[in-house]
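Limitations
The structure tokens in this dataset are predictions for the assembled complex, not deposited experimental models. Users should treat interface geometry with appropriate caution, especially where small molecules or nucleic acid strands are included. An illustrative entry is reproduced here so readers can see what is and is not provided.
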Amino acid sequence: MTVITRFAPSPTGLLHIGGARTALYNFLFSRHHGGKFLLRIEDTDRARSTEEAVRVILEGLEWLGITPDEPPLFQSTRFARHVEVAHQLLAAGKAYRCYCTPEELAEMRERALREGRAPRYDGRWRNRDPSEAPPGVAPAIRLKAPQEGETVVEDLVQGTVRVANAELDDMILLRSDGTPTYLHAVVVDDHDMGITHVIRGDDHLTNTFRQIQIYRAMGWEVPRFAHIPLIHGADGKKLSKRHGAVSVLEFREQGYLPEALCNYLLRLGWGHGDLEVISREEAIRLFDIKDVGRAPARMDYAKLTHLNAVWLRRADDERLLAEIEARLALRFGPLTETHRARIRALLPELKERAKTLNDLAEAASFLITRPEFEPKAAALLDASRRALLARLAARLAETPFEDRATLHETLRQFAEAEGLKLGEVAQPLRAALTGRTTSPPIDATLAALGREETLARLKALPPLEEAVETLRDRG
Ligand code: GLU
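Predicted assembly:
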């Protein structure tokens, strides 16, 4: 049997991390078994579905590298087929027309609530002859669900879950306006797409019993189900807007790498020993739905950020350069080849220190133009240190900048000659060049900036008064 899975989002909101994880598990499971992964956009709720949401889903999945093996199927295009199946059930006596008016249904619901029962349809049209149909009432089509015995789901994550059929009423397949219900459409589509494994959030578990009844009524093979626990916020509550970045694309904006987010989402609820950093290839090799835990997973931003730093260090430099460039261009306009060369030169050092792409871009920004002095950096540039830097500039003017070791040696000798420690030279130099008190090692920083820019920045140090002003302004 070829394993075929699907991700079936409703385009009514964001692609949030819960959905992304569901998609990832479906993708990994199918890849692990050499099968297929499909995407179905469940856009039957026309009022709530938007094109923008569809775009965000497709863009989010593409960014995460969770791409389907076939073009997405839009559920709304399958309307005629949903209707057809309902009519087949009707013809086979597995479904019936129900002529209840909205008032009757409301009355049924109220009575049940009054009597402390769960509101259910009482099956009043189940065995009635259609000739009794009241004039002018359009019927709904309901499934003639079994009333005895039980429906059992052998769930790959939740284990055996059962419900007495007496608890389930005759569900509507087609509403009186002729539109299919969501539960019915999902079954017809999953069947026609040949889905063998339905992996989805455990909020759908209760739907499964009814959906199995439709499969049985049609004589279709029932797929295997795996209901995975939801993701909760760090506070243990259901994930919501309140928890900040929940849309996948927001993580992209915040400078997370897709492989880091996938690694994190994979580990959130699934584990393989104490393996933490897992590549896509390894994930495909190791992933098994049986290892998904049953407890709700908790979002842990610190862990995600840690993984992001790990993947950042492993990432290809040219790719990181492009990401940095895209971010810096927003602030400084298009970069030049010189800017690029500077960033490239310092990247090995920068990426050791950054946690996100945004951090990385921020840390590289001084390579484009010296930022405003941070107060602590300004404080380092008093008159005597400026004089020191002027003497140093003269030395640097004669030093080749190509080689870090030579630069380091020049600074060391200069410090020795001045009777200072290396750091006492490096700190004001760093402040003067970067406007900060922290940066990658000073020799690497100098090499990346190059001699011309270094000397220009040293020469252009703002007057002392200005530095002191900056300090005073900021308290
Ligand atoms: N469209 C449903 C949702 O977005 C998923 C349905 C399913 O996976 O069966 O929650």
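Some entries come with short summary sentences. For this one: The longest strand covers residues 36-41.
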